[in-house]
Amino acid sequence: MASMTSRLEEWFGSLRRHAVLGLVLVLTVLTVPPATVRDAPISLVKLEAATDVDHPRHMVWILFLGSDARPGEDLLRSRADAIQLTGINLRTGAATMIGLPRDAYVDIPGYGSDKINAALMLGGPELIGRAVGNLVGLQPDYVFTAGFDGFRQMVNAVGGVTVDSDFAFSDPVRPQGYAVGPNKLNGFQAMIFARIRKSLPRGDFDRSANQQDVMRGILRQVRAHVDDPGFMERGVLSVVRHMNTNLPPSDLYRLAQAGAAVDPRRLRGCVVLGGIGYAGAASVVFPDVAQARRIVADARTDGTIDGGC
Amino acid sequence: MTDPGRHPSGRRVRRRLASLACLLVLGLLTACTGESPTDPTTRETTESEPAGLPERTEESTATLEPRPTPARIRVTRVSGELKDADREVLAGRVGAVVTGYFQDAFLGGDYPRSDFGDAFATFTGGARAQARGDRQLLTNIKLGPTTEQVVARRQTAYLSVLAPYRVAAGVTARVDLRYLAVRAEDRVAQVRVHGRLLLTRDQTGGWAIFGYDLSRSARPAKNGS
């Protein structure tokens, strides 16, 4: 009997609670005003966005090197096939690439005059960084060096690149050839595009411009996929595995995230020109030092070149 | 919460009841029609990012006192290598930073709230300075002064981790924060803040937010009348 009384009390208690809840619901539905746009200081659906990546530096100068090391050779004790000094404004997203011809005949500290690409073989990234810095009047903050295979894998890691070629030429790695205008390239094809020079009217100078086009294509890919889960982490991992740098991964990650903020449309490219001649028996380029220094001075503080190349 | 001297107590109680009722109906409507596991914003997640939306069920909304939804933090991708135990530790530490930001900037504090000066305590110095300029979007400052209560509806962070040498070096947290801002005169705003938070270790070895790419949307809640 006591048990039945207890159950009844429990049942009535439950009924009371549900009745109160139901009453609140009904009252609510009756009294809550319709969801129309009111004088609330918010719009019906307003989407706003904010983006920023903090990096200790405002301007970063990176020397990107493509080493011509063959399999089994030391990446950092070979000649530099591609030499691109890039200034990035991490605040505004503006950037300038300055391509140097690999045969540029310059002073290599401690070794006298030689082709600039020999500096990597003679003294590694640090020495070629100093040689480039002395040439252009600004020392790079970082030097990144990639070999053929690393470059190919990094391009593949971002899903290939689209380059905008100024010239048409053929190569066995791409049966349809390279056409004037956009070309979607895989890692191997991009590597050939960045290396070939004999098919180009200005040889090494046009090749340097092609290298910049590949870098622009990589940046476009990064920007297109930066929101994809895990994309940046995979990309930085690929850089860690395939490029030589003395940056710890955490710094590299931060730099990569900041660099991904660069707007490809604001990524300008200039190639340092020069006269072709001979130093002894070697064919060399005597670089236009004044041009190189003028471009770098122009871009030094904000990453933009106002005076053109 | 609010200053008792600012409103007559009876009016205040009525407003609070109306607000709670509003939340109640909103919760039921949401459970029936809106933010379900088929929500397109969650469907796009990958196999390793849970697509479910466990924030509220009909049962859990059938209460007069709205309960905040606990945060859900998971490591979903690792580029490199990280042991399972380390993933859990990382989720805890990074989760504390992310939810700390959610609390400081949106969910915590005494509402009505106008002071959001401490909203970016888990940011690096440079990011904190930039974020202050974006505080209209990165905090609840727009609604704070007229909000009486904030109730979390969803707090998720799915972590993509860079760990090249078996130690986490960087993390992208894909975050989704949804909350209800209960305001004066029965108004309830649904607010969503989602996007990416970028984290790396600071000089002490702890985690800090060094970058953000966040979107914020706000709209009046449908109350079904």
Secondary structure layout plus pairing:
The complex is a heterodimer of chains A (309) and B (225).
Chain A: H1 2-31, E1 46-53, E2 59-67, E3 80-89, E4 95-99, E5 105-108, E6 112-115, H2 118-136, E7 142-146, H3 148-157, E8 161-165, E9 169-171, E10 174-178, E11 181-185, H4 187-195, H5 204-225, H6 231-242, E12 243-244, H7 249-259, E13 267-271, E14 274-279, E15 282-287, H8 289-299
Parallel strand pairs in A: 2-7, 4-13
Antiparallel strand pairs in A: 2-3, 3-4, 5-6, 7-12, 8-11, 9-10, 14-15
Helix pairs in contact in A: 3-4, 3-6, 4-5, 6-7
Chain B: H1 9-33, H2 40-43, H3 58-61, E1 72-80, H4 84-107, H5 125-133, H6 135-138, E2 147-163, E3 170-183, E4 188-201, E5 207-220
Parallel strand pairs in B: 1-2
Antiparallel strand pairs in B: 2-3, 3-4, 4-5
Characterization of the model:
- The complex is a heterodimer of chains A (309) and B (225).
- Chain A is built from 8 helices and 15 strands.
- Chain A has helices at 2-31, 118-136, 148-157, 187-195, 204-225, 231-242, 249-259, 289-299; strands at 46-53, 59-67, 80-89, 95-99, 105-108, 112-115, 142-146, 161-165, 169-171, 174-178, 181-185, 243-244, 267-271, 274-279, 282-287.
- The relative contact order of chain A is 0.15.
- Mean pLDDT of chain A is 85; it is low at 14-46.
- With 225 residues, chain B is of the alpha+beta class.
- Chain B has one domain: Nuclear Transport Factor 2, Chain: A (Roll).
- Chain B has 6 helices and 5 strands, in the order αααβαααββββ.
- Chain B is globular, with a radius of gyration of 19 Å.
- In chain B, 44% of the residues are buried.
- Residues 1-47 and 51-65 of chain B have low confidence and may be disordered.
- At the A-B interface, helix 1, strand 1, helix 6 and helix 7 of A face helix 1, strand 1, helix 5, helix 6 and strand 2 of B.
